[in-house]
Automatic annotation (TrEMBL):
SUPFAM superfamilies in the cross-refs: P-loop containing nucleoside triphosphate hydrolases (SSF52540)
The protein's name in its UniProt record: Sulfotransferase
Keyword Transmembrane helix: yes
Native source species: Linum tenue
PANTHER family: PROTEIN, PUTATIVE, EXPRESSED-RELATED, SULFOTRANSFERASE
Transmembrane feature ranges: 21-42
Keyword entries, A-Z: Membrane, Transmembrane, Transmembrane helix
Keyword flag Mitochondrion: no
Superkingdom: Eukaryota
C-alpha cells in the first residue's frame, strides 16, 4: 500500500511539461486580466471625479446631520441650510422647512403670518416681492428665494440660528402668476411647502379686492393707501366706501 501511495504522488512530477505550461499560461492570463480591470476602475473614478465629487461634498454635509427622526416621505422637504451671513452654531443640524404663503390682499394673510411669527422658531418675512425689481424676471426671483431659504434674508421677522421653518408671504399679483413656471420648478426642486390662503367666500374676496384697488387709487384715508386698517375710525371710513362701490 505504501509503495503504491508513493508511486501515485510521484507520478505527476514525471508528467510531461505541457500541462504545467498550460497552467502557468492560464495563471498569467488571469493576472493580466485582473490588473486590466483594476486600471480601468481607477481610470473611470478619476474621469468622473469632477461631477461626482461635488455631489459627494454636498451629501457629506447633509450626512453629518442625523435625520433618523424624520419620516421617509418628508426627507426631500427638510433642509440643513448653511447661511453665508452667520453661523447656525449648535443648531446646524436642526432641520428647516421652507414655506411660502400664497394669497391675495385682504384675505387674512397678515393675521396668519402674525400667527406663524408668534412661534419663536418660525420666521415669515412678509411681502418681500412687493418691490418690483425683486420680481422683474425669474433670475431675480430665484436670487431672492435663495437668500430667504438660506436664512440670509434679514427682516423684522428674522429669527435666530435655531429656525425650524422659514418663508414669506407672496401675493398672487406680485409676479406669481407671471412667472409661475419658474416658481413651480423652484418649489419642486427645493422642497418648498406652498400654503394657499384664500377667502372661502368668493363674493367677499371680490369685494375685498375691489375695495383694495379703490382705496389704492382714491386714498380716502388722509391721502394714504392702507392695506390694513388700524382703528375703528378707519374701519368705518372703509366700510362706507365698500357700501358705495
Ligand atoms: C441618530 O439618532 C438616533 C436616535 O435619535 C440614534 O439611535 C442613531 O444611532 C443615530 N444615528 C447616527 C448615525 O448617529
Ligand atoms: C426652538 O428651537 C430650540 C432649539 O432647537 C428648541 O430647544 C426649542 O424647544 C424650540 N422652541 C419651540 C417653542 O419649539
Ligand atoms: C432681471 O432683473 C434684474 C433686476 O431688474 C436685472 O438687473 C437683470 O438684468 C434681469 N435679468 C434678465 C436676464 O433679464
Ligand atoms: C387724518 O388726519 C387727521 C389729522 O392728522 C387725524 O386726526 C385723523 O384721525 C386722520 N384720519 C384717518 C382716518 O387716518
Amino acid at each position: 500500500m505504501e509503495a503504491n501511495d508513493s508511486l501515485v504522488i510521484k507520478a505527476p512530477k514525471k508528467s510531461p511539461l505541457l500541462p504545467r505550461l498550460v497552467v502557468l499560461a492560464f495563471a498569467m492570463v488571469c493576472g493580466v486580466y485582473i490588473c486590466f480591470i483594476c486600471l480601468k476602475q481607477i481610470n473611470t473614478n478619476n474621469g468622473g471625479s469632477t461631477t461626482s465629487n461635488k455631489f459627494l461634498d454636498v451629501k457629506v454635509v447633509h450626512q453629518l446631520c442625523n435625520s433618523s427622526g424624520i419620516e421617509q416621505w418628508e426627507i426631500p422637504l427638510v433642509h440643513y441650510p448653511n447661511p453665508v451671513t452667520f453661523s447656525r452654531e449648535e443648531c446646524v443640524c436642526n432641520p428647516v422647512r421652507y414655506f411660502a404663503i400664497l394669497s391675495m390682499q385682504r384675505s387674512g394673510s397678515g393675521w396668519f403670518e402674525t400667527l406663524m411669527n408668534s412661534h419663536i422658531n418660525v420666521s415669515s418675512n412678509g411681502e418681500i416681492f412687493g418691490k418690483k425689481d425683486r420680481r422683474a424676471n425669474v433670475t431675480a426671483i430665484v436670487n431672492v428665494l435663495d437668500r430667504v431659504y438660506n436664512l440670509d434674508w434679514f427682516s423684522s421677522a428674522s429669527k435666530n440660528e435655531c429656525n425650524a421653518a422659514v418663508g414669506f408671504k407672496w401675493m398672487l399679483n406680485q409676479g406669481v402668476l407671471e412667472h409661475h413656471e419658474g416658481i413651480v420648478d423652484y418649489f419642486n426642486m427645493n422642497g418648498v411647502h406652498a400654503i394657499f390662503l384664500f377667502r372661502r367666500n368668493l363674493i367677499r374676496r371680490l369685494i375685498s379686492v375691489l375695495a383694495n384697488s379703490y382705496d389704492k387709487s382714491k386714498k380716502p384715508l388722509n391721502g394714504t393707501h392702507k392695506s390694513h386698517v388700524h382703528s375703528v375710525a378707519e374701519v368705518l371710513i372703509l366700510n362706507s366706501l365698500i357700501s358705495s362701490i
